[in-house]
Amino acid sequence: MTSVKSLLEPFIAFLYVGMLPEAKDALDNLPTKIQTHPDVLEARLCFLDAKSMLDNQALEDGVQLGKFSLKLWPLDQRFYVLTTHFLNEQKKAQEAKGILDSAPAWIRDASEFSYQLARCEAQLGNLDQAKRLLNECFAKDESCRENFLSEPEFAPFSHLWN
Predict the structure, then answer these.
(1) Contacts of 84 (CB under 8 A, 6+ apart)
(2) Quick one: the chain helix, strand, coil %, rounded to 5?
(3) Strand ranges for the chain from DSSP E
(4) Would the CA dihedral through 12, 18, 20, 26 be positive or negative?
(5) 125 and 84 in a common domain
(6) Most CB atoms closer than 10 Å: which of 84, 124, 142, 152?
(7) pTM
(8) Residue 21, in any domain of the structure
(9) Residue 118 in domain
(10) Residue 35: inside a domain, yes or no?
(11) What backbone phi and psi angles, to 5 degrees, belong to 127?
(12) How far apart are CA 38 and CA 102, in angstroms?
């Protein structure tokens, strides 16, 4: 039997080179029985994230798919992070924070969780809280620092980590 990850390889290749219509076709042509597999749902959210650079409706579609994925897979941290990412991109920090607040306790230890919560706090104007969360995030995973430097919410204190 072919693994889901190997079935996603054409999608990943098309997405990587920016061929969005072909990437979508690769997802749509996957077998029906795996369409709600967590890796396929994550791939769809990644597709919507790439598409959102060209189409604002993709941001809302990402929120809706993320919430759907959370209902199917409530213990999968990817869907908390991705759903809040789409909400933060729409400047819906309070709603994003609500999603994060509903996450199981063990998910809150992930660096991505601290990072997305810091984005919420920064959008809400709680810069001290955002800075504390970013320090937690960087302590857990130094690679988050690169993402941080590109986020507009963190502009007021990005000089502190350059």
Answers:
(1) 96, 97, 99, 100, 116, 117, 119, 120
(2) 75, 0, 25
(3) none
(4) negative
(5) no
(6) 84
(7) 0.78
(8) yes
(9) yes
(10) yes
(11) -70, -35
(12) 19
